[in-house]
DNA sequence: GAGTAACCGAGACGGTACGTCACGTCTTCTG
DNA sequence: CAGAAGACGTGACGTACCGTCTCGGTTACTC
């Protein structure tokens, strides 16, 4: 969304909303590739020129339309990791599982310069904040020291991405609760016994991990 | 890849390979959107007509080039769930984390009728086999009864998708091992204490799960 | 050449002229079949899309480029049939004997639906006007009543077509003058003797015509 | 039609006829441009390879199929110019006015190398023979000395070409008879009065020609 | 009678042109 | 100066045709 100069006729703000709405609707209906800017303009009762006055390209429009962060809290930090993790996953599911979002992610990644545009803006910032939140949890002893926070971060968005892309499972509250439970169990510190067994063997083999947990 | 009849001049099999190789190379270099069939044809020293003789569209070519399953085993089933899970994740990482695969997934999902074509062919079949493997593990008592296998399936591909799309973490053996450990711990049955505590409270709240694990 | 609406950016009229010029030049150089729209576009420093915005097809472009009638007088009518016939043949030779015109006529007739498009527009209109001019001459007694005006009309363009297609004779002023002389002599009323002889025999045999003329 | 070597399996002569018939039929139905060799092959129940074994190109096939001269007499020479001219025009009408012939002429002229291929073979030979016949008529005094035989030759095929191309008039026996009458009258020597008047004025103006004829 | 050379059908091959579509820019008129 | 309309260059897409080539298989002359 580009700035506009102070002088001259101001932009019709109803057009902004109409364009964004049309973009989201058409993304869901047709997908990224078969959604032309002409179709967006027509549904918004305007022209492509008006769109290009506001956004620099199709991908920029889609990115800002679908992933506009109206100053949302992207990271929950109440102090209770279990609750916060559940909250973040729920938020992520609301963000990623919409049909328009699936189409947008796929479309933006299929574009060439998506690296700079997309990631640097919203996604990267959010990732950074999530990483910091998890790092704090680790320092607070809420997460086992052996847990790689990079891996843990991938467990928040990743399963949702898979579900949204494959379209197999419908992600409802129960599904999310099940997911959170597995992650939490897998991530929590297991007390003295856990500490000793893994410290003894270092990066133990998977079967030894299994043994340790059973105890 | 369409069948060809027995009569007439047979197809030049070197062309098939050259086209597939060119497709994978250009996907990695330029991404889905900026990879034209003309460029593929040029690199494979042929013409677009020869490509269209073999595949019906750009998306069909990409799907079969990147996700050709040469009769691969898509599911590991040695009886040891821990080892099999690790194997499947490793296989998935080899399949999904290549640059060409990332570009292909994004591109195919940005196309309109990818649902029917792509998923029904390879991905859906693989998902089905994974689901069956997990269901067997559940019946064998290797997985806690409370674990939703649909959620568990999304934990195999999902984190890899996230890592590949965000490009933040580089997925190496250590990363995969960390992932497997978290999933295993979160999924394994926890013995009598777990059974009693969860059976008592049914779908317990997340905080009660936390308590149960700590014991 | 399609109409364009009043609103919006107007067409670049220099492009229209450049395209038409390039079409005529390339028709003469290469002929209809070996003249591609891409070559026309290149010589006119534009693209095929700009051409298709103006004309619906290659044949339509060629027809309007070669046979554009800028409100020309297609029929001479000074009252003197001899002079008018000479004028019309001279005009026709200028229209039909250009290399581009020869290529255009052949090309358009080799296309399938040229009937409706080409003839109904310019050629048919011109033919109609010529027929009317000849009919008036007949009523004025300048042409013998036995002369079929349809045949006479074919004597204006026909010999020029033959000369242009066969490429044998070069059509210069002397050639045209010779042609006009033959037609005029064959067409003029021959006075009382002619009237009586032909009325006596009705549609006389050709040899009797010969006799009649000799008298 | 290319030669074939003496050894090996001989060609299926029924195919030759079937291909020629299919070519003529499709030329009349669809025109030159929209007649594909694949369609010809299909109608003749064979393949394009069999066609290319016999003819070198589409244009060569069309030329030989439509204008095959099975040793026909292309020039009538009974000694009676009037009758011969009528005969030649009648023959020409049978040759040129078929729908397939119109399509063939247009198509061949729209091809690039039609000069060498088409004219050198049949048309040029025929023209040469016609020219010689007319020259003999002139020497025999059957044609006025002022008549240009090149012009006269163009009066045989030309009007028929015009009629066939424009499609306006249907060329029947009466039409041809009318045409022959006009040409003959315009071409015959007019006796002593003609000789003196034209010798006096040389290339007289058209109006003086008119006067001379009226006498 | 065995060889062989050319035929036949089918269909893939390289090459070229066609006509369509979308993107992002530019130019006019109107408010 | 915004907005509507639409032309502009660029470039990809998918189709069609031409003329050639390569198969497996067949047919008739030749040795």
Outline the fold blueprint.
The structure is a homotetramer of 215-residue chains.
Chain A (H helix, E strand, L loop, with lengths): L12 H18 L6 H7 L4 H7 L3 H9 L14 H16 L2 H12 L3 H26 L9 H18 L6 H15 L4 H10 L4 H9 L1
Chain D binds a DNA duplex (31 and 31 nucleotides) through helix 3.
Structural features:
homotetramer; 215 residues; mainly alpha; Arc Repressor Mutant, subunit A; Tetracycline Repressor, domain 2; 68% helix; elongated; DNA-binding
Work out the helicity level of chain A: 55-70%
Give the overall form of chain A.
Answer: elongated
Question: Can you count the helices of chain A?
Answer: 11
Number of strands of chain A: 0
User: Can you tell me the CATH topology of the largest domain in chain A?
Assistant: Tetracycline Repressor, domain 2
- Please state the oligomeric state of the protein chains shown: homotetramer
Structural Rg of chain A: 22 Å
Task: Work out the strand percent of chain A.
Answer: under 5%
Please describe what this structure looks like.
The structure is a homotetramer of 215-residue chains. Chain A has 215 residues and is an all-alpha fold. Chain A has two domains: 2-66, Arc Repressor Mutant, subunit A, CATH 1.10.10; 81-214, Tetracycline Repressor, domain 2. Helix content of chain A is 68%, strand content 0%. Chain A has eleven helices and no strands. In chain A, helix 1 packs across helix 6 (99-110) and helix 5 (81-96) packs parallel to helix 8 (149-166). Mean pLDDT of chain A is 80; it is low at 191-207. The interface between A and B is large, with 69 and 69 residues. Chain D binds a DNA duplex (31 and 31 nucleotides) through residues 4-12, 15, 36-38, 46-50, 52-53, 56-58.
């Amino acid at each position: 969304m580009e700035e506009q100069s102070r002088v001259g006729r101001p932009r019709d703000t109803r057009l902004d909303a109409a364009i964004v709405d049309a973009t989201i609707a058409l993304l869901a209906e047709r997908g990224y590739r078969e959604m032309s800017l002409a179709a967006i303009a027509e549904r918004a009762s305007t022209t492509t020129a008006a769109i290009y006055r506001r956004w620099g390209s199709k991908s920029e429009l889609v990115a800002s339309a679908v992933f506009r962060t109206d100053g949302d809290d992207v990271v929950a930090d109440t102090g209770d990791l279990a609750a916060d993790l559940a909250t973040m996953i729920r938020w992520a599911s609301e963000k990623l599982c919409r049909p328009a979002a699936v189409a947008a992610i796929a479309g933006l990644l299929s574009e060439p310069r998506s690296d700079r545009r997309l990631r640097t803006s919203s996604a990267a910032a959010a990732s950074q904040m999530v990483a910091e939140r998890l790092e704090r949890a680790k320092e607070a002893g809420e997460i086992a020291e052996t847990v790689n926070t990079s891996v843990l971060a991938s467990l928040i968005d990743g399963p949702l991405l898979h579900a949204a892309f494959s379209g197999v499972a419908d992600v409802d509250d129960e599904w999310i609760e099940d997911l959170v439970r597995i992650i939490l169990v897998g991530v929590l510190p297991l007390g003295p016994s856990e500490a000793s067994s893994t410290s003894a063997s270092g990066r133990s083999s998977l079967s030894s991990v299994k043994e340790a947990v059973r105890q």
